[in-house]
C-alpha cells in the first residue's frame, strides 16, 4: 500500500498544482485584468437606454412589431420571451444553436417556404427572388445580431409605411449601423439590427 | 478567396519562429524567457517533488496514463458536485453519471465532444476547474508525448525525457502566457469575462431577453491554443459571445493552427542531422528542417485542397431552396453567421477539423453534402497537422509505412532517420494505422444496427448515416465537432463515444511511444548510396499517395453511402 501511495503521490500533486494554476489562478487573473482594462466588453457589451440595459450589441433579438426591422430566423428565438411564454413552458431557459437541418431535410424547405410567403405578405412590394438568402435562413448560433445590407434594404419600404419615417431617414439609419469588411478584405458587410431598431425607436419617441 | 490566402500566409509566417521556440523548449535549450520561467518551474517541481529523472518509453507512458487517470477522477468528482453554491450563480444542477463520464473522457482526451449545452449544463466552477483545467492538461499531455516521441526518433539521447517536466514546461512556457495574451485580446473585441449571473433585460419591444455571462474569454483562448474545441456556450464559436467579429474569428483560427504547425517545424529541428549541414564550416539558418519539408508540404496541400472544396460547395448554395424560390447567390447560409459569410466559415470548418480542434463557427450538420465531406475526411485522415503533437505522430506512422513500401519496391531494408525499420516497428505501425478506421467504422455499424443508436439520428435519408459516421470519426480523431442534430445525450451515445475517444487517444499514443522507444535503442546505420532519402520531393509525393490510398481503401464505401449519395440526390 505504501508503495502504491508513493507512486501516485507525484501525479496527484502535479494534478492539484495544475488544477489550481490553470483552473483557478488563470481565469481569475484574466477576469481581473479584463474588468480593469475592458469593463464594458468583459460584461457583455450591454446597450443601455435611460440607465436600463435593453440588450447586448453583440446578440440579436426577436422583433415581431411591424415598426421594427426583422432579424434572421432563430432556433432559440434569440432567448427572447414574454412572461406568458415562460409561464406556459414555451421558453425553457437560456440556450443557443440551430435546428441542424441538413440541406436535404424537408423540414428546412417547408420552413423557408412558409417564411417566404409570410415575408411577401408583409412586404408586398418585394418579389420572391429578390429576398437575400441570409434573411430567411437560420444562423448557427440562433443569436446572430446581423443581417446583410441587402436584407436591410429590402425591408425599407414596408418599414417606412409602418413607422411613418421617410425612406431616406431609414436608409440613413441603416447606413449608420452598417459595418464594412475589416481592411476591406476580411469578413462581410453587416447591419446590426438591434442598433437600427433602437434608432427607429428613438426617432419614434418610443424610448428616450 | 484573397482573405483565405492571406490567413494561410500569416499562418506559415507565425509557425516558423514559434517552431524554433518549441524546439528550444523540447531540447531544454536556452530561451529568452528562461529567467522568469525557470524560477516558476522550480517552485512547481519542488512542491510536486519532481526530480528530473530520465524515463524510458514505458515509464513515460505509465506516468502519462496515471496522471491522466487522476485528473479524470478529480474532474469527475467536481462535475458530480457542481450543484453546490460555489461559483454557481445560475444555480446549475449536478451532472448525470453517463454524461459526466462522457464529458470527462472527452476533455481529458483533447476531444471536447459535448453532449451537454454549456449555458444549462455547467456551473462556472466546472467551466473553470474541469473544462479550462482539462484544456490545459490535455493539450500539455499531447505535446509532452509528441516531444518524447520525436526525441526517440531523433535518437540523440538514450531517454525520452521526463513526463512531469515536459508537462509543466509546456504549460508554463507556452500555454499559460499565450492564453492570457489572447484571452485579453478576445475580451477587447467583446468576449465577456466575468463571474456574474446571466442577465435578463427588457427589450425595446417590451419582451424579456436572457443574456449569457461567465468567464468565456478564459475558456475561449485555451480552447483554440490547445486545439481543444469545446465551447462555453452550446453554439460554440458561432455564438457572438465566443466569436464576436471577423477579427476574433481570424485570431481563433490562427491560434488553433499555431502550435500543431509549429510542432512540425520543431520536429524538423529536432531530427536534423547537424554534421551534414555544417559541412561548409558554418551552420546554416534553417527555417524548416529538411526532414520536416515533405511532411509539411503534404499536410499543407491536403489542407488547401479541403478549403477549396468546402468553399466551392458552400458557395454553390442549396438547390432545393433555389427551387422553392430563395435566391442562392449568397451561398448556403443556413447554419452560418452573416458576419463570417461563406469564406470565413468554410476556412474555419476546414481548419478546425484538420487541426482537430472541433470548435465550430457554423453548424456542420447544415453544410452541403460535399462541404461536409471536407471536415469528415480531415478527421478520417487525422494527419493534416492534427491536434497538438498527436497529428505529427500519426503522420510519422504513415511516413514509416511509406518508407516500408518504397523500401520493398527498390529491394532495400527500409530505414528512417538512420534507423532500420524492422518487423516489430511495422507490426506496431500497421496496428496504429488500422485502429482509427476500425473504431470509426465498427462503432458506426453498431450504432445503425441497434435501435438505441438509430434513435439519435435527426435528419432523414443518407444524411442520417453521415451524422453517425461523423460522430465516431470526431470521437476517434479526438476532434469533438459534431453534426449536432444527432440526439446524443443518451446512455448509448455517451458510453460508446466515450469508449471511442478513450481508445482513439491512448492506444495510438502508447503504440507510437513504443515505436519511438524501439527505434531509439537501435544502432544507427550509416547512409549509403542505396539509402532511400526521406527529405526529397519524390518521397513527399509517395507519402501523399500512400495516405490517399489507405484513406480510400478504408473509408470510400462509407463515404459513398453517406455524403456522396446525398450530393447526387440533392443535385439531381
Automatic annotation (TrEMBL), chain A:
Q: Which PANTHER family match?
A: POTASSIUM-TRANSPORTING ATPASE C CHAIN (PTHR30042), POTASSIUM-TRANSPORTING ATPASE KDPC SUBUNIT (PTHR30042:SF2)
Q: Source taxonomy lineage?
A: Bacteria, Bacillati, Bacillota, Clostridia, Eubacteriales
UniProt-annotated location(s): Cell membrane
Q: Which organism is it from?
A: Acetobacterium tundrae
Known role: Part of the high-affinity ATP-driven potassium transport (or Kdp) system, which catalyzes the hydrolysis of ATP coupled with the electrogenic transport of potassium into the cytoplasm. This subunit acts as a catalytic chaperone that increases the ATP-binding affinity of the ATP-hydrolyzing subunit KdpB by the formation of a transient KdpB/KdpC/ATP ternary complex.
Keywords in alphabetical order: ATP-binding, Cell membrane, Ion transport, Membrane, Nucleotide-binding, Potassium, Potassium transport, Transmembrane, Transmembrane helix, Transport
What is the official name of this protein in its record? Answer: Potassium-transporting ATPase KdpC subunit
Q: Which family does it belong to?
A: Belongs to the KdpC family.
- Membrane-spanning intervals of the chain: none
Superkingdom of this protein's organism: Bacteria
Topology with respect to the bilayer: Single-pass membrane protein
Is ATP-binding found in the keyword set?
yes
Q: Which gene encodes it?
A: kdpC
Primary residence: membrane
What binding partners and quaternary form does the record give?
The system is composed of three essential subunits: KdpA, KdpB and KdpC.
Task: Establish whether keyword Endoplasmic reticulum is in the entry.
Answer: no
UniProtKB/TrEMBL annotation, chain B:
Where it sits in the cell: the answer is: Cell membrane
User: Keywords in UniProt for this one?
Assistant: Cell membrane, Ion transport, Membrane, Potassium, Potassium transport, Transmembrane, Transmembrane helix, Transport
- Pfam families under this entry? KdpA
State the annotated membrane topology for this chain.
Multi-pass membrane protein
| Keyword set includes Metal-binding | no
Instruction: Say yes or no: keyword Transport present.
Output: yes
List the InterPro entries hit by this protein, alphabetically.
Answer: KdpA (IPR004623)
**Membrane-spanning regions, if any?**
6-23, 60-79, 128-150, 170-191, 250-271, 292-313, 389-410, 431-457, 491-520, 541-564
Q: At the top level of its lineage, which domain of life is listed?
A: Bacteria
> What family, per the record?
Belongs to the KdpA family.
Quaternary state and interactors: The system is composed of three essential subunits: KdpA, KdpB and KdpC.
Task: List, alphabetically, the PANTHER family matched.
Answer: POTASSIUM-TRANSPORTING ATPASE A CHAIN, POTASSIUM-TRANSPORTING ATPASE POTASSIUM-BINDING SUBUNIT
What does this protein's UniProt record list under function?
Part of the high-affinity ATP-driven potassium transport (or Kdp) system, which catalyzes the hydrolysis of ATP coupled with the electrogenic transport of potassium into the cytoplasm. This subunit binds the extracellular potassium ions and delivers the ions to the membrane domain of KdpB through an intramembrane tunnel.
- Would you tell me the protein name for this molecule? Potassium-transporting ATPase potassium-binding subunit
Gene assigned in the entry = kdpA
Amino acid at each position: 500500500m505504501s508503495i502504491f501511495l508513493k507512486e501516485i503521490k507525484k501525479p496527484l500533486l502535479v494534478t492539484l498544482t495544475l488544477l489550481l494554476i490553470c483552473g483557478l489562478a488563470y481565469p481569475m487573473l484574466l477576469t481581473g485584468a479584463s474588468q480593469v482594462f475592458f469593463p464594458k466588453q468583459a460584461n457583455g457589451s450591454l446597450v443601455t437606454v435611460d440607465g436600463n440595459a435593453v440588450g447586448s450589441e453583440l446578440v440579436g433579438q426577436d422583433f415581431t412589431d411591424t415598426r421594427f426591422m426583422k432579424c434572421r430566423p432563430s432556433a432559440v428565438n434569440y432567448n427572447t420571451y414574454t412572461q406568458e411564454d415562460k409561464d406556459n413552458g414555451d421558453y425553457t431557459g437560456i440556450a443557443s444553436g440551430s435546428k441542424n437541418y441538413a440541406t436535404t431535410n424537408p423540414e428546412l424547405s417547408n420552413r423557408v417556404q412558409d417564411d417566404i410567403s409570410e415575408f411577401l405578405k408583409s412586404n408586398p412590394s418585394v418579389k420572391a427572388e429578390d429576398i437575400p438568402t441570409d434573411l430567411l435562413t437560420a444562423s448557427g448560433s440562433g443569436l446572430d445580431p446581423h443581417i446583410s445590407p441587402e436584407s436591410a434594404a429590402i425591408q425599407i419600404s414596408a418599414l417606412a409605411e409602418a413607422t411613418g419615417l421617410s425612406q431616406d431617414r431609414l436608409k440613413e439609419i441603416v447606413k449608420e449601423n452598417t459595418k464594412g469588411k475589416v481592411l476591406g478584405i476580411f469578413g462581410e458587410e453587416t447591419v446590426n439590427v438591434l442598433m437600427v431598431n433602437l434608432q427607429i425607436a428613438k426617432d419614434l419617441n418610443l424610448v428616450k | 478567396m484573397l482573405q483565405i490566402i492571406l490567413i494561410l500566409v500569416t499562418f506559415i509566417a507565425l509557425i516558423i519562429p514559434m517552431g524554433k521556440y518549441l524546439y528550444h523548449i523540447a531540447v531544454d535549450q536556452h530561451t529568452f524567457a528562461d529567467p522568469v520561467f525557470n524560477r516558476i518551474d522550480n517552485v512547481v517541481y519542488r512542491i510536486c517533488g519532481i526530480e528530473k529523472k530520465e524515463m524510458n518509453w514505458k515509464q513515460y507512458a505509465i506516468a502519462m496514463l496515471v496522471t491522466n487517470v487522476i485528473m479524470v477522477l478529480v474532474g469527475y468528482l467536481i462535475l458530480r458536485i457542481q450543484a453546490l453554491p460555489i461559483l454557481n450563480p445560475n444555480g446549475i444542477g449536478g451532472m448525470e453519471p453517463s454524461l459526466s463520464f462522457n464529458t470527462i473522457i472527452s476533455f481529458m482526451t483533447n476531444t471536447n465532444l459535448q453532449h451537454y449545452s454549456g449555458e444549462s449544463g455547467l456551473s462556472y466552477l466546472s467551466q473553470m476547474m474541469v473544462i479550462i483545467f482539462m484544456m490545459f492538461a490535455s493539450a500539455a499531455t499531447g505535446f509532452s508525448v509528441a516531444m518524447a516521441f520525436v526525441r526517440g526518433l531523433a535518437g540523440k539521447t538514450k531517454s525520452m525525457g521526463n513526463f512531469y517536466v515536459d508537462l509543466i514546461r509546456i504549460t508554463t512556457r507556452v500555454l499559460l502566457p499565450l492564453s492570457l495574451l489572447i484571452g485579453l485580446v478576445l475580451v477587447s473585441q467583446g468576449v465577456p469575462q466575468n463571474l456574474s449571473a446571466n442577465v435578463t433585460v427588457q427589450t425595446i419591444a417590451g419582451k424579456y431577453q436572457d443574456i449569457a455571462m461567465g468567464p468565456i474569454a478564459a475558456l475561449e483562448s485555451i480552447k483554440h491554443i490547445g486545439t481543444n474545441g469545446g465551447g462555453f456556450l452550446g453554439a460554440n464559436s458561432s455564438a457572438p459571445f465566443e466569436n464576436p467579429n471577423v477579427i476574433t474569428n481570424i485570431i481563433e483560427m490562427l491560434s488553433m493552427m499555431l502550435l500543431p504547425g509549429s510542432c512540425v517545424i520543431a520536429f524538423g529541428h529536432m531530427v536534423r542531422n547537424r554534421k551534414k549541414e555544417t559541412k561548409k564550416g558554418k551552420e546554416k539558418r534553417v527555417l524548416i528542417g529538411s526532414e520536416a519539408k515533405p511532411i509539411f508540404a503534404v499536410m499543407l496541400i491536403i489542407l488547401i485542397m479541403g478549403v477549396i472544396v468546402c468553399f466551392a460547395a458552400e458557395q454553390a448554395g442549396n438547390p432545393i431552396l433555389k427551387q422553392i424560390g430563395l435566391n442562392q447567390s449568397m451561398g448556403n447560409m443556413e447554419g452560418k453567421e452573416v458576419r463570417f459569410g461563406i469564406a470565413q466559415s468554410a476556412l474555419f470548418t476546414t481548419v478546425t477539423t484538420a487541426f482537430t480542434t472541433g470548435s465550430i463557427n457554423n453548424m456542420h450538420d447544415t453544410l452541403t453534402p460535399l462541404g461536409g465531406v471536407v471536415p469528415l475526411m480531415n478527421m478520417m485522415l487525422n494527419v493534416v497537422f492534427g491536434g497538438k503533437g498527436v497529428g505529427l505522430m500519426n503522420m510519422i506512422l504513415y511516413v514509416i509505412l511509406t518508407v516500408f513500401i518504397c523500401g520493398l519496391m527498390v529491394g532495400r531494408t527500409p530505414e528512417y532517420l538512420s534507423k532500420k525499420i524492422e518487423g516489430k516497428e511495422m507490426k506496431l505501425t500497421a496496428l496504429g494505422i488500422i485502429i482509427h478506421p476500425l473504431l470509426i467504422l465498427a462503432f458506426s455499424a453498431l450504432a445503425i444496427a441497434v435501435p438505441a443508436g438509430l434513435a439519435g439520428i435527426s435528419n432523414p435519408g443518407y444524411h442520417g448515416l453521415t451524422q453517425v459516421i461523423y460522430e465516431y470519426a470526431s470521437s476517434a480523431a479526438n476532434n469533438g465537432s459534431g453534426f449536432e442534430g444527432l440526439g446524443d445525450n443518451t446512455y448509448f451515445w455517451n458510453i460508446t463515444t466515450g469508449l471511442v475517444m478513450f481508445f482513439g487517444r491512448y492506444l495510438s499514443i502508447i503504440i507510437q511511444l513504443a515505436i519511438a522507444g524501439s527505434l531509439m535503442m537501435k544502432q544507427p546505420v550509416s547512409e549509403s548510396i542505396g539509402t532511400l532519402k526521406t527529405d526529397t520531393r519524390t518521397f513527399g509525393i509517395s507519402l501523399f499517395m500512400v495516405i490517399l490510398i489507405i484513406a480510400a481503401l478504408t473509408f470510400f464505401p462509407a463515404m459513398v453511402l453517406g455524403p456522396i449519395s446525398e450530393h447526387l440526390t440533392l443535385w439531381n
